[in-house]
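[stage:ingest] chain + small molecule (zinc ion)
[stage:ingest] validated
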Amino acid sequence: MSALHLVHWSVHLDSSVLNRRCPRCDLVRAHTFSGRARLNANGRHLDAWLLYTCAHCSRTAKVPVLERAPVRSVDRALLLGLESNDPAVLGPLCARLVGGDAFSVRGDDLPSGGVVVLHVAAGLSVRLDRVLARGLGCSRAEVSRRCPDAPLRRSAADGQRVRVLPRACNETTRSDGVVPAYGTSRSPR
Ligand SMILES: [Zn+2]
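[stage:predict] done
[stage:export] tokens:
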């Protein structure tokens, strides 16, 4: 038996990546925040969107943060921040959109099994199975099959090593045909 393949993954806080369906790709894709918002005033109502870019096809996605909001009800600091693309205002809006998914995993793929060494950002608490699902680009059910001896329900720990078994024959491709790209955030399924 050859030596176990070893890869390093870094896990860090990241609210700039949103996993959503891309109409052009017709798949759930990682979308990266562009740093920009768009506002539209329609009479006394305001619509506002954050602009994201599909990491695969570069299509721009408009994600609503205000929908037909009465102008008077909109906080002035929020309005100014949306108009000026102020990161201090847009950052928390991104974090709210992303919710508990505000982390990303970067590192090499591990299609044929081996050992993952995790480098977890300080202060970040994410369950190990969610980290592995994103990093491997698979479901948490598949994670539990491929990582039978890992404490999957505990938080991922810095420096933790996890043994990952190769994909079973019926798991060689994801049903949506996505091959996780190196260095990008992967969508949990
Ligand atoms: Zn796309």
